[in-house]
Every structure is written in C-alpha cells, then in structure tokens.
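Appendix B: complex inputs.
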Amino acid sequence: MISEETIIKLLIIDKLIHRQEYVLRELAWEIGVQPDLLERIADDMSKNYLLNIEKGKIIWNPADNPSTLKPWGWLLIHKPLLGSTQEAAKGASPWSVIVAEYMLAGRGRHGKKWYSNLGGLWATFKILTNAQTASMAPIIIPIILVRIFRKSYDVEASIKWPNDIIIDNKKIAGILIEGEAFRDQILLYVGIGVNINNDPPLPDTISLKNILNKLTPRNRFLSLLIGWMSRMEKLSLEPEKIRENYMEYLETLNRKVLVKTLQGELIGKAVDVRDTGELIVEVGRGEKKVLDPTLTFELRHID
Amino acid sequence: MISEETIIKLLIIDKLIHRQEYVLRELAWEIGVQPDLLERIADDMSKNYLLNIEKGKIIWNPADNPSTLKPWGWLLIHKPLLGSTQEAAKGASPWSVIVAEYMLAGRGRHGKKWYSNLGGLWATFKILTNAQTASMAPIIIPIILVRIFRKSYDVEASIKWPNDIIIDNKKIAGILIEGEAFRDQILLYVGIGVNINNDPPLPDTISLKNILNKLTPRNRFLSLLIGWMSRMEKLSLEPEKIRENYMEYLETLNRKVLVKTLQGELIGKAVDVRDTGELIVEVGRGEKKVLDPTLTFELRHID
Ligand SMILES: [Mg+2]
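Resulting structure:
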C-alpha cells in the first residue's frame, strides 16, 4: 500500500522532471490539490530532495534531477514510478540506464523486497559485454561503489560479502546482478540502489545524507557511477588487481559471521574468498564451509 | 492508502489514453512489471473497463476512453490521477470539463469523502453563466442526470433531495456544485460522479453495470452530459417547467425521511419543496420544519 501523500509527491516529481520550476499555484491546479496542501507536501519533500519553495515558486535543483543528465554513450530513462527498474530494463537497448524515483515492486537479491523510498538512487544499468567481464561483475560493481564513496565523498564504505555496501556495519547500497545470454555475449542487468537523500528504509541501513549531514545532488553520484560502468571491461582486464581491491575493501574478512543459507544457519569466522566468489568460513577446529553467494540468503557481522 | 495494483492499473490507463492498443509485453516493459503480472492485472481491469486482451495485445475500446472525445465548444482534460477534479478545474478556463480515472482526495457535499474507484465517471464542468442559471443549477443538474438515465438507458432513476440520484433507493450518482463570482457572472464548478462500470463503492450504492448487467461505454454518458450542460442556460429560461420536472423526478416527496442536520436528527414526512430549494418536513400534528440543503448533512428514505 502507498500513501496518498507519496503519490502526490510523485506527481510533483512528474511535473518537475521536464521543467526546473513551477508556480506553486499552477502546479496545485495541475495536480488537483489545494495550494496550501501542495506547499505543505513540497516542504516535506525538501527533506529528501533538493527542492526549494520561494516567492510562490517550487524549484528543483537540476543536479538532483536525473532527467537533466545526458551521459555520453548511454540512454538514460528516468521515470517517477515503475514496477521495478530491472523489469523496465528488459525492453531497453543495451547501454541504457533506467532510473526510478519509486518502485512498486523493487527486488533485491533472492527475491527479497527492495525498499525504494523517495530521495534515493534506484537504477538498473543494461550492459552488453563479454563472458569474462560478466563473470567478474559481482566483484567489480561493489568495488566501484566503494571507490565512489571513498574517493568522491570521503566516506569509509566497505563491502559486506558478497556485495552489500556498508558504513559502520549499516547498509548504504545494494546490488542485484542478473544476466542473459545474447549471441556470444552477455546482457547484464546491474541493479544498484543507493540510500542517498532518502530516509533509511530499515533498521541497520543508513543514508549518505545521515553521514554528510546534508542533502547531496544525486546526479554527481549517478554520473560517477555511469563513468565507472563504461569502464567495466577495461577493469576486468586486470583480474589480479580487481581481486586485490575486493579483498582490501571487504569488511567481512576475519570477522565473526552469522550466515543463513538454504541449509540453515551457521556461525564462524570468515577466513577467505575464492577467485570464483565463494566465502570460506571456519566453523571450528579447522572445519571449513564453502559458501556460494547465490545460495546464501543473509550474512551478518556479529563481532 | 492505495494498493500497488490500483497504481499499476492507473499506469496502464496512462499508457492507453493516447494509444488504443499496446503489445502486452511492450506495455509490461514500459511499466516495469513482468508480462504475466501485467496480464493478470489487465484481466482484472476488464471488470471495470472495456478492455480486451487478445493475441498478446491489450486494447481499450475508444468509446470508454474520455480522451478520444472532442466535444464541440468544450476543452476536455482527462487525467488518470488527480487530487480532485474540482480543484483541478480551478486553473482551467470556463467551458472546460475535467475527467479523472481516480481521485486521491475526491470531495462530496459537506466535505464528505467521494469514493472514486476505477471504472466510474468522475468529472467537473466549469461553466461561466448568469446568476439566474447558477441559482437554478442545483435543480437543473439532477434533472439532467435523471433524464439521461431514463431516456438513454431506460433506467428508472429518481432524485433524493436535494440532489442525489438513486435507483431502488441506492445512490448511482452524486453532485457537488461550487461557485465563485466572476465580474457580473458566476463561475460554476459542477462536480458529477456517476457509478458506471466501477464496483459500487459503499453499501446503498449501485452502478449502471449492475443494472444493465454489462459494461457500458462511458463516452456515451459523458457526451450526453456535455450536451445537456451546453443547454443549461436555455433550460433555466423555463423555471416553471424545471420546477415541475424536479417535483416529478423527486422520490423524496411524500416519503418518510430521517434527516441529519447540524442541529441534530429529525424524522417526518417530506411534504413539499420551496422554489428556493428548501425541503418542508411535517414532523407531527401539523408542525413543519424547513430544511436548507446546505445545512442538511444526510437524508434517508425510511418507509
Ligand atoms: Mg576519511
């Protein structure tokens, strides 16, 4: 279920996507709500969007509106509301990036619901690439995210195995990678959700705005992401370096972990990650378990 | 709160408004839902819309899509989703008709919520007229509705004072009239809600589809309504005839009624209606009460 207020916010976004500003009264008429109500709702939106109300106008900072980005070599499709960006990407051509402000049925790994509340960055990148790059994507994408957080925002993000991005043990970004064969190549659907200016959707999650103590224009993050995505194949040419980077950023290594798999729960110490992505967990007296990411439902750091 | 499914239905409408048909798979991609889910939802919609799924296509009968109407002398604005058509009409020019498939904050008389579920006809007519016609609107509009039901659908509708339209004592249409002065004339906002192909939203309501036992194309009703609205001034030139018509169509006359006013409840027999619209109720031993429609919250026929 969705609140009427959230829907009105999405109608406001829908109007402002192609026009930076609107006279508040005119916007109220277009949406069919009283101007006072619209002003109250727009004011509330300014907690999650770089939106200002001044002199009877409502103005959206273009650097926070993905529709204003024209990334070279990519088709950007930005919609207020979608079922999910992963599904919407199915019909798009390769090298499209689909961005939604809200998803009715956002998916995370293992069919878990993905909470896409307003002000976050919810995107799917559709990429046509070779098998080598595709097989490394689960390692490369979290590295890209950590690099952006560390180098462009000075924020100490790290990886929780297999590919959640955490800060202070709280999730700030999630990744869902799906693929299909296309002739001799692979079509990759890389879904990335980043808590940017949205309120943290769940316990143990955190948003960039909580860390920076201010709202940040989402297009900066999105352009950095697009830039790195364009260079995925190049990155995959140096598998040793990528693996080294992944291990460097991996918070899980040497931590005590609680893991839920299809076979049940186990507790142990994470001691290594194989080249092919499996986590090795020492569960006692030298006994080791090999965990496949696709069969691991949940992992928590518990020390 | 609104269900995700209702929102997906509104996204389907939004796509079909300007295109009579869509390949189902392409529509699923555009909305970002799996084709199987879209098909299930579209199938469910065909209970409330003249919508067909055949050979992998979804097709909306244009006679059920208000956007296909081009009424002479009127500007028709049709939106899937609005706060309310009354508010949206505020920014429109006179002789506009605003139609919404769903209202987030539909209003009835006395600020009561108006339930606008999918498949009904929810419209506001914005009319610039003289004071004489404006003062008669509360009598003329219900007459127009009853005439349409009786003459074009062969359905025995009648008026429940002051201006609900009922069939078998169940509400099928409601009216909300608001006005503002504009120079020496009156801007009228005539809100009309008709349960056409929607499921009856409340107990004691009924839809045209229940009576006809089939879905009916809404544009026929809407064009008839627009035609009559264009002739309101002409109708108001014959006040005697209008009054006679109103009394003829008024179910409430000589009925035992329970009335809720701001001063409390009363029970009595409805014996007359004044030229100025007040209902006269005999409450016992010749004692009569005069009820102003604007101060009467609810009236029920109880015999
Ligand atoms: Mg630092």
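The domain at 4-60 of chain A is CATH 1.10.10.10 (Arc Repressor Mutant, subunit A).
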